[in-house]
Amino acid sequence: MGQAGLTLKIDTTGTVTADGLEDTIIDKVLGSPFKGQLILDLSNLGSGDSIIVKEYTKITSTGSLQLLTSTTFTAVQAEPAAVFLVKNLAYEHKITLQQVLGTYRTFPYTYYVED
């Protein structure tokens, strides 16, 4: 899985249950740059639901987390497997989910790192 010539292995699987706050899906910290990818199952989203998924990274080993991407998903998704593509990450990769509308849902995920 991943880009040509890149071997990824499953690092973490689980679920995150939305509660209206910015809930952490993954907060991966390594001592050196790495590649990471998240696949998030959005099949539980309903017609009145909306979530925001944010990715953060730490640029230097002593720096603070910086926002990398922010993506909003609203209502039922025609393609419910959301893939946050393999990225070169410096030291830390944090991904959060916040449900801002609708009934709070549970979202399964798998996080991969370069093997």
Write the layout of secondary structure elements.
Layout: E1 8-17, E2 23-29, E3 34-41, E4 50-58, E5 65-74, E6 81-89, E7 92-101, E8 106-114
Antiparallel strand pairs: 1-8, 2-7, 3-6, 3-8, 4-5, 4-7
Instruction: Report strand order across the widest sheet.
Output: 1-8-3-6
**Please, what is the average pLDDT?**
92
Order of helices and strands: EEEEEEEE
Strand composition percent: over 45%
List the uncertain runs. none
- In DSSP terms (H or I, runs of 4 or more residues), the helix count works out at 0
Query: Which class do the helix and strand fractions yield?
Result: mainly beta
Do you know the CATH architecture? Sandwich
Total strands: 8
Structural Rg: 14 Å
Outline, from the CA principal axes? globular
Q: According to CATH, what is the topology?
A: Jelly Rolls
Total discrete domains = 1
Largest sheet: 4 strands, antiparallel
The rounded distance between the terminal residues' Cα atoms is 11 Å
- CATH class assignment: Mainly Beta
Helix content: under 10%
What does this structure look like?
The chain has 115 residues and is mostly beta strands. The chain has one domain (10-114): Jelly Rolls (Sandwich). 0% of the residues lie in helices and 63% in strands. The protein has no helices and eight strands. The protein has a four-stranded antiparallel sheet, with no helix packed on it. It has a four-stranded antiparallel sheet with strand order 2-7-4-5, with no helix packed on it. The radius of gyration is 14 Å and the shape is globular. The mean pLDDT is 92.
